[in-house]
Amino acid sequence: MVDRARDRRNRGSEGFTLLEMMVVIVLIGLAVTFGVIRFQAYLPRARLEGAARQVGGFLTRLRGMAVFAGHAHYLEYDLDGEAFRVSRPATIAEREDGAPEYIETDWFDMPEGVTLEHVQFSRRDEENRGLVSIEFTPEGEVTGHLVQLLSNRILGEDRSRFTVELNGITGLVTYTPGVREYAQIRDESDFR
Question: Of 11, 33, 38, 86, whose CB has the highest number of CB atoms within 10 Å?
Fold first, then answer.
């Protein structure tokens, strides 16, 4: 009798039943599925914010480069091609080798699903097609503007947009989730 009780206890410690293994595998599968779904929902927003930070980083960097080099630098937005690039002055060595006065970098493409919706220079002056060029002068001056980025993978009018604004006077770059109104004063009519 004692041997039978000992056998029952030993049998239970030998391993898991097939049913227990199946339940654990199903639970792991459900956890992975929900984790992937949550991650995929976050990805478009991260791409939109990353693209905004990339554009803003170039704006900040170009202003400093123009002042440091003592030559104008340019940022060119391709609103139809969903990309932007930098034009910088050629170095003396590059010019001696026959390079043009300004060298254009390769285009930086927007991440998948993110587009350059428009570039706005004042409350009334907005571009949403073609090429738009911004000059950064050696004195640190730059045309203040606002860049509206759009993600076609995010639902909701305000959540699908991100605004990058460059203050032309201070050079400060601000990032705003959603749509932001252009607030900089550009001409006399803005005082009325």
Answer: 86
